[in-house]
Amino acid sequence: MDTDHEKSILVTGATGKTGGHAVRLLLRDGLRVRALVHREDERSEQLAAAGAEVVRGDLHDLDDVGGATRDVGSAYFVHPIAPGLIEATVIFAQAAAENGVDAIVNMSQISARREAKSDAARQHWLAERVLDRFPAQVTHLRPTFFAEWLIVYGEYDEKGGVLRFPMGDGRHAPIAGEDLGRLAAAIVANPGPHAAKTYPIFGPVELHHDEIAARVSKALGRPVRYEPISPATFADILRGRGWDPHRIQHLRNVAIDYQNGIFAGTNDVIETITGRPPMGVEEFVERNRREFDRASR
Hints:
By secondary structure, the protein is an alpha/beta fold.
C-alpha cells in the first residue's frame, strides 16, 4: 500500500544524479519531500525553490540522521563510493527505526556479493543484510554501471574521444541516473508492492564497449573509440587523477567482475514500475551534450 503521505518522503544524496531526479519527480506529484544534503549550494537552493524541505546533515552523524528521519514515512538511502558505508547504514537504520519510518529504498550495486573482491561491493552486500533486519519494508536497487561513466571516465576533445576502460570483451546495458532516480521515486512513493525485493537494474540494450563507443560517436558527431586496458593501468590512470584509494580499489576489482559477466544483462524493471523504458546510450548523450562538451574542454 502507499506510504503515509501525511508524512514526508526523505531523499538522501538529494543533489546527486539519482537523488536530485527523485526529488523533482516526487514534488511534481505533489508529495512532501525532505531533501538531505551534505552541504548547501546552488543545487540545494534549486531544490528548495522547487518546494523541497532542504536539511543539511551528515549520514555518519546519528543526531543529524535522527532529525532528518523525524516525521518521515519512507526514505531513499544512497551513499557514495566512499569509506563509511556500513557505519552510515547502521546509523540510518537505527534512526529510521526510532522514528517509525515505514520503508527504505536502498541504493546498492549489482556487484554486491559476499565473495566480492571490491571492498565497496562487499560493504554494499553487508549493508543490505543490515537493512534486511530493519523492522519495516526494505527494497534494494542493484544497478549495473551508470551511463554517467561515459562522462566521468571518458577522455574527449574537440576532435573525438576514447573510452580507455579495463572492460575487455564484457558487456552491459548502461543505465542513466535520471532513469534510476525515476525508479527510486516510484518505489519510495509506493513501497508496499516492492517490500523485501531486490531489483537488478539495467538500461535497455546490452552492449560491448565498441558498440557503446560507436553510439557515443554517432550522438556527438565526432569519432569515439574503445581502447581496452588492464585493470592495473586503469588504476594508475585514476591514481594520477588524484582519486582516493577506496574508489580505485573498488573500480579495479569490479572491472574484473565486469569481464566475468557480473554486470551483464537486461530486464524491464524500470518500464514495468515507472511506465516508461530507460533511455539508451544515444539518447543519454544527446540529453547530456553539455556535459560531454564540458568534458571536451
